[in-house]
Amino acid sequence: MTPDTAPQKEEPVEPNRKDIDPQDEQAAVDPALFEEKPIAPPFERTVLTTPLHLVTSLESRTNRWTDWNGYTVPEVLTGLGDEYRALRGAAALMDVSPLVKYRIAGRDAFAFLQRLVTRDIENLGVHRAVHVILCESRGLVLGDGLLFRLADDDYRLVTEETHLAWLMDSSEGFRVRIEDVSATLGTLSLQGPLSAFVLMQAGVGDVASLAPFAARWVTIAGMPVYLSRTGASGDLRYELWSDAEDAPHVWRWLVECGGPLGLRAAGFALRELARLEAGLPRAGQDYLSAFAAIDAREALPPAAIWASPAIDLDKGLFNGRAALRRGSDEPPARRVVSLAIEGLEPLRFSTLSLEGRVVGAATSTGFSPALGANIALAVIDAEAAAAGALLAAAERRDGLSVRETLASVRVLAKPARAHPRRLAVPAPLRP
Amino acid sequence: MVTGGTKYDAIVIGAGHNGLVAAARLARTHGRVLVLEAGDRLGGAAATSEIVPDYRAPAIAHLLEGFPRRIERELKLARYGLRYAARDVPTVALDRDGDHIALPRNRREYAAFSKRLPKDAEAYRERVALLRAQAELVAPLLGQVPPRRDDPDALKRFLRRAVLRAEWQGRSALGKLMHTLPESIGDRLDAEFESPLLKGVLAFDATLGGGEGPYAPGTSFRAVWREAIRMQGQGVRQPVGGMGALADALAAAVEAQHGEIRLGARAVRILVENDAVAGVELSDGAVLHAPLVVSALNPRVTMLGLLGAARLETEAALELRFAAPAGSTAKINLALESTPVFSGLAPELHGARLVIAPSLHELDEAAAECRDGGFASEPVMEILVPSLADASLAPEGHHILSIIVHNVPFHVEGGWEAKRETFVQKVVRTVDAYAPGTADAMIAGEILTPPDIERKYGLAGGDWHQGDLRLDRLFGFRPSPAFGRYEAPVPGLYLCGAGSHPGGGVTGLPGWLAVEAIGAAKGGER
Q: Is the dihedral of CA B114, B117, B119, B125 positive or negative?
């Protein structure tokens, strides 16, 4: 509005004048009441932070941040080696709030989920969790996640990527309510041999009795927290789900109680390393959602991604059943596998070849101190995985110079880290 | 689990002509067949209804255009009372000034035609020849079950005849068809003809039943499609006793094979047990058991309503969710106490299909009005006086006017309650302009707006075709890729209505081919 088109300034009206009759329609009103106030749409904010952003930034000694699902999270808080030692020797605490969380509730929630996921969730009890796989009609994977049963008709689906459109599309014909509750929950991941002990120190009673993939409501520092024995790691691990406002206090209390025991706060890099050592593929990184795969060969069936995916062809109708039934006898052409390259220094590599022919690519790489080797998750041709004698084009950096070498690659039969403690009942309080 | 109820070998939902054809064919091979009809009469949109006592009019459809001879013979419909009052019914484009154009059917008529339109006659001959040639490529595809999606060889077999024929026709035949596919009928006719009236009638035939105007892409192919549909049949025919006579003959064929037909039985649920169809539940709670359920209802109603989206995979249900049909055709039946006389029309042509579509411009305007929820000031329509050929329809000297009005919206601005009278008056005034005295001779009338058609005949959206005949919804893509071969992903459930290949019109083909697909599936299991 240019100055000359702007309306003439009116005499200011005094508010709360006694002589104004509220019934009088001609009475002067405060124009400020009717001024349009611009409301910033949520998508105008491009830097998304988790409920734990303030506390994690206080812990940060490196100012190294990264982007996870659109959220700004610490990459490394103190040092990856330091954090790794805490993870393997004591406990590490991580902010995993960027995980996508859906609440699925209603009379048909069970039937809806039975149709949505490949595994039979008939026997999923209240306060239990299972790993679930979502497929589309061609039997190709859309994503995977963890499904919690919070109450009889109340479930929580935790995934790496968003699936809201698919969930809504699938809900036709079911009396079910689907809600993205990601922003209302703060999620902490506590991993490491002392994690149960840390929880005990933090005031959680009878931690040891909590079975793997079980959950329970507990009180930590006076705040209600949903504690589950889950997480992307090959060791003892817990996840703590609380209100977004409570999460920073839970974090502080755990750091305070666990600090003397060797607990360290850690960033996203450590979570990736722990996941890589446990051989757990991540959606969007190690495999693509079937809807996101532009090249049809990049969309994979469950059997290509997991060694023994949970599929129950006899449980009743679910998305992808017909296709999975047809393809159940033939092995997949491409597979996600764990690899290792011997050597004591970190390497950069991606292309994998067999007898001069490119057979696949590494999708996540990292240096595993547990194995003393470079490890990776890679998508490769299935017959090449069986053949062995794979070579990786690796880059060795020395100062500013780069040397390219071919390193020999070993396909790992079992993950680099799968400690029996992970599934032990009762959970060990001492390593 | 059998908890009461009766057991059948097959249940057909919907006693429209497609449902009855399917039932009659099923009854010969599949044992005890039951037909469920929610309404109180047979035939669906191909029925005869009484306007007032003694005046019987075709309820919606009034002519048989593509009813195949093989269905008629194999079901022995002639034995069950199907007779024809008129064969090879001609088409006449009505002119405002009485200078009508009769589309020629033979050499003699062509001579008259070329006298009337000396400039367009040659072009018309060429157009008919090209249309026939192209329709011949498509026609064989209409008479067979579409190929499986996942079997490339089946697609080759499906197209083989069309391709061989195209090779035989010459190199350019397929190329011309390719050119026709995306083209609009309006552009094509503008390039070929001069006479607005001739263009009007040709475009009317190509767009009737769809919501698009003559300049919409893909409408040129609809003319080919319609010609191919006509090739399935034996010329345009009018059954004695109205279209209901066809339904009665089909019902007699069903009953002769010990099939059972129940009127007033509304199916509300298709039951599934152990991943296969188990039967049908009726609105009164009765449960009927059958391992095979064939639905002639709209695919969307069948799959999302009766079966339930929960019984389908997400993507299959999604395909149907967005294919909501919306009809654009209304039906008006008038009872007259005298013989209608169209000014300037030869007496022998009064029994013809009389098309009022003065020009492309009128059609285009009517389509645009329809899209905006209104109707044209001078509606475009097709008129038949069935009582001229079939005296049994009305008392002596009295007649029936059966009018199909094109481009009438389902949702009219202001609501149908308010606009119904205006609409009828507009139609009657238009007819009166061509046949003076009609308005005065009118003693009764019946109007079916698209919502009426939906309510009375159960055609969702009032759409005769149960889904537009669009290029992306034909063959194996009709009604959608997951249901393109009549079968649903649930074993034992099939579609057999106009929503399936080859689509709307009184052809009986969807019902006929559905049973073929059922037989093929059974054979495959063995």
A: negative
